[in-house]
Design brief:
The protein has about 350 residues and is α+β, with helices and mostly antiparallel strands. Helix content is about 20%, strand content about 5%. Helix 2 (about 275-285) crosses helix 4 (about 315-335).
């Protein structure tokens, strides 16, 4: 107090300008005075947990006045400067970093599964028990992607819309160069597929059906009532000779085909088997060299198609016929080859 100065001394005020004319505990700090409200900020992060001190004239340790704080309340851990209402929530650290219980620390996608029990905590559609869909994601968290929901597609290298059964892939949608069909028997030739027509004598199974004959075969013998002449025709009662419809001896071949299949072809599953070549050679060099042999061949071609079709439908029958019937015949024919080839 100064009662003798006529003008205002520096740092002095009159009573009307003061809250109190006495009691200041530190006249060098404007924040320290009687009646001051102090807010606790022990971690010095600018946020108080709401604890106050209104009795201390001087600053208590770890306390600040309101003007020194961002907020006078809201800090739910005043011992950790990283935890306050202005912080960003850090997932899976076990802390409520932003002091907001509504911000999850775990189960970020709020699907009811904590991170330790699921495989993607950022996608609410991915969790144990979810429905697996074809999307390239392990939706049900069982360790398998798109298990049980993909489609099998087959490679169609020759672009004939028929796929190779030995070359497949599983996918959610049809890959380029793949089809759903798997019945192509030669995926390098667009003219060979189950929808093609069999072309005689081209050495291909054009229609992918071993039961369809590729070799041009002889027609059945004529049944018009005439007798067979040595030239292969039939003599009518009047003595005229018709056009030959039975195999002509000395190598004559018909240009007509009969649907069906050799029994041997059905047994071996292909008309190009080496054993069938032996039988063909025997037929051409021996059987077709005589009228009786030609008639036997023609009768065989008449009767064999339905038998061959029946055999071709069963792998067991093919094996039995091949091993018990055709193979022994081939063996005999080959064993006597020196006789009939000369």
């Amino acid at each position: 107090m100064d009662t003798i100065s006529c003008t205002r001394p520096p740092g002095y005020k009159v009573a009307s300008e003061l809250t109190a004319t006495s009691g200041d505990c530190d006249d060098n700090d404007a924040n320290e005075h009687p009646g001051q409200t102090w807010y606790k900020d022990a971690d010095d992060d600018g946020y108080s947990d709401g604890t106050t001190d209104t009795t201390s004239c001087t600053r208590p340790p770890g306390y600040k006045v309101a003007s020194e704080l961002i907020s006078t309340s809201g800090d739910n851990d005043d011992s950790d400067a990283g935890v306050n209402p202005g912080a960003t929530e850090v997932p899976y650290n076990g802390k409520d970093d932003d002091c907001n219980p509504a911000t999850p620390d775990d189960d970020l996608d709020q699907d009811g599964y904590l991170v330790d029990s699921e495989c993607d905590d950022n996608d609410a559609d991915v969790h144990p028990g979810a429905t697996e869909v074809c999307n390239g994601i392990d939706d049900d968290c069982d360790g398998n992607i798109d298990d049980g929901v993909t489609t099998i597609y087959y490679h169609d290298a020759d672009a004939d819309t028929y796929g190779d059964p030995n070359h497949s892939t599983q996918a959610c949608s049809q890959p380029q160069g793949y089809v759903l069909d798997n019945t192509d028997c030669n995926d390098t030739d667009a003219d060979v597929n189950p929808g093609a027509n069999e072309v005689p004598n081209n050495g291909k199974d054009d229609d992918c059906n071993p039961a369809t004959l590729d070799e041009e075969v002889l027609p059945p013998p004529d049944t018009g009532g005439g007798s067979t002449t040595p030239g292969g025709g039939t003599t009518t009662p009047g003595g005229d000779t018709d056009t030959p419809s039975t195999p002509s001896p000395r190598g004559g071949r018909s240009s007509r085909t009969v649907s069906g299949c050799f029994i041997a072809t059905a047994a071996y599953g292909t008309p190009s088997a080496q054993q069938i070549d032996v039988l063909r050679e025997f037929r051409d060099m021996v059987l077709l060299e005589s009228t009786v042999g030609s008639q036997c061949v023609a009768l065989y071609y008449r009767l064999s198609p339905p038998i061959a079709d029946f055999i071709a439908g069963s792998s067991l029958l093919r094996t039995l016929v091949r091993e018990l019937v055709v193979d022994p015949i081939v063996w005999v024919v080959e064993a006597t080859g020196d006789m009939w080839r000369n």
